[in-house]
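Hey,
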Amino acid sequence: MSHPERLSPPGGEPVGAIAKPPSPNGKSSESLAEFAARYGLTQSAARPPLGRYIRDVWQRRTFIWNFASSKSMSMYTSSRLGQLWQVLTPLLNAFIYYLIFGVLLQQKRGVTDYIPFLVTGVFVFSFCQRSMIAGAKSIGNNLSLIRALHFPRASLPFAFVIVELQHLLVAMGVLVVIVVGFGELPTWHWLLLVPALLMQLVFNIGASLVIARMGAFVRDIQQLLPFILRTWFYASGIFFMTAEKTKGHPLIGKLLEFNPGSVYVELVRTSLLGSYRSDLARQGWTHHHLWLYGLGWAVVAFMGGFWYFYRAEERYGRG
């Protein structure tokens, strides 16, 4: 029995057949673009318009959250202590830094309650640090997913930053216990933690999008990034009071103050620690302008990072 698609009309070509594309030897005058348009063919990995791309990312918000939650739950499944490592890791780091910088090097000058001061800095900066490391790996470590499914690739850096946000929220619960243990009682200033951490979240997403694109095409970024982040960590006032260290050096003080890592750490400290607000007042140092810095960094990083990542959308997973 003959198949319908093999029957030929008077013109000679089988019914339903697609004509051959133009020959590369130049005998055909039809270009590949014209050939594709004639048969309604489109590029499978073309970058969509920016507005549609933003809508696509928003429509996948449930996927982003569920993907992040599953990653967070599976991260420590092979460890005996499991999810407890989300808290133990920054706590152990803070303990080591306290022994070195608080006890041996005596960097706690000007700070009344050094342990809450130090633990707050380590917890908050770790959110930036871990988000960027995760962003650098978000594309390269998920190539099989990228090649198997069609979705906006920005969903991956978003999801990995959400993983780190979930870890931070657990750590913040422990931080509150530590702070209360040192005599800090809840005040209305604690409400400022919400906008401070939201601004940091937006900044981290933007920075992670930039590093995700770089890490997707230059794998050496993953090796170099820990050194850059460690230098940034030591320059962000985690161990010392910025206002105390920059006396007589106004330019250095302004640079350290404008540093986004320091900005978000200081905003959380001044929101959470009444003793630290008193320490700053004794130094004659005000912090209210840091809210403008934090907002500015969040907006610039997110908008710039999203645009930068989006421009290479069709190249992720190639090669």
